[in-house]
Amino acid sequence: MANTVIGLFDQNDQADQVVRELKSAGFDGDQISEAVRAGGGSRFKEDAALNIPGIGSLGASGPLHRALSGGGGRTPEFISALQSLGVPADDAQYYAEGVRRGGSLVAVVADEARTEPAIDIMCRHGAIDCANRGTQWKQAGWSGFDASATALTDVEINNERTRVSENAQAIPVVQEELRVGKREVERGGVRVWKHVTEIPVEENVNLRQEHVHVERRAVDRPITDADVATAFKDETVELTERSEEAIVTKDARVVEEVVVSKDVEQRTETVRDTVRKTDVDVEQIDTARPGQTTRGTTDKDIDITSTDASRTKTNR
């Protein structure tokens, strides 16, 4: 089962580092997508970028680039392209707005076994919590991504990045989830061959054979009236020899059946393992009363969305 792991980053170089590390970790480069505002120091050139409504000049790669450029002449929609990767519509709003405001997006299609490594790589490079960031935008009046809005200028994007870096510092809090699946394995079995064997057989049969014999006998007797009637007439006498020959026929009959079947039994197995989580301790410094501190724990989410064709889940 394939999942799409997606993360949003405030800086272009963070996204580039994630892409490089994913490739170094063995992820298929054709399954890695990146979306970055073209120009402004990014590795995507403006003359080769796509013009995306609401975002402007955008450099993209991988499946996301194919989704954006495969519209058959239609204007590419960023929200639709994200949804084609399996991103839920609500989450796509956050990601699209994040890119609009100068963020960089990275997504990778990974099988179930490699989903967690992909999430770890994105967390280590500072993937932001889109839901929390979206709450901040809404408090400032944002109501959702607007494809008809005017794209931000480079100056506005730089101001947005400065505001984010001054007001927030991301501390990744990671918690592992235990996923238990099952797979079929072969434990042996039975192989049955059917083949044809020829067995010599014999039967005795009595056959009749006819033979015609011609015999001349010397006689000396007076001619009779019967002889006179046929004595001087042409006459032909034929005798046919007949014989019997053996005719062999074969009748097939089912004399045995070999039935191959299997029984299925269900069993319950308890899987035990350990999962890890990161706790962040916050120490409140009371300057009015030196020497006294308050300690506590805060839960901060990492917005890494893992999706597949049949389900969507957010690890937060």
Question: Could you characterize the architecture of this molecule?
Answer:
With 316 residues, this protein is α+β, with helices and mostly antiparallel strands. The chain contains 8 helices and 9 strands. The protein has helices spanning 12-24, 62-69, 78-84, 89-100, 115-124, 130-139, 154-167, 225-231, and strands at 2-9, 32-37, 50-52, 56-61, 104-111, 280-285, 293-298, 304-307, 312-315. The strands form 2 sheets. The protein has a 7-stranded antiparallel β-sheet, with helices on both faces. It has a two-stranded antiparallel sheet with strand order 6-7. The radius of gyration is 46 Å and the shape is elongated. The two termini are 21 Å apart.
Distance between the termini: 21 Å
Strand order, largest beta sheet = 3-4-2-5-1-8-9
Number of strands: 9
Element-by-element helix/strand order: EHEEEHHHEHHHHEEEE
Q: What fraction strand?
A: 15-25%
- Major beta sheet summary: 7 strands, antiparallel
User: What helical percentage do the residues reach?
Assistant: 25-40%
Radius of gyration: 46 Å
Q: What is the mean predicted local confidence, pLDDT?
A: 81
**Low-confidence regions:** 287-304, 306-316
Described by the principal axes of the CA atoms, the overall outline is: elongated
Class by SSE composition: alpha+beta
Number of helices: 8
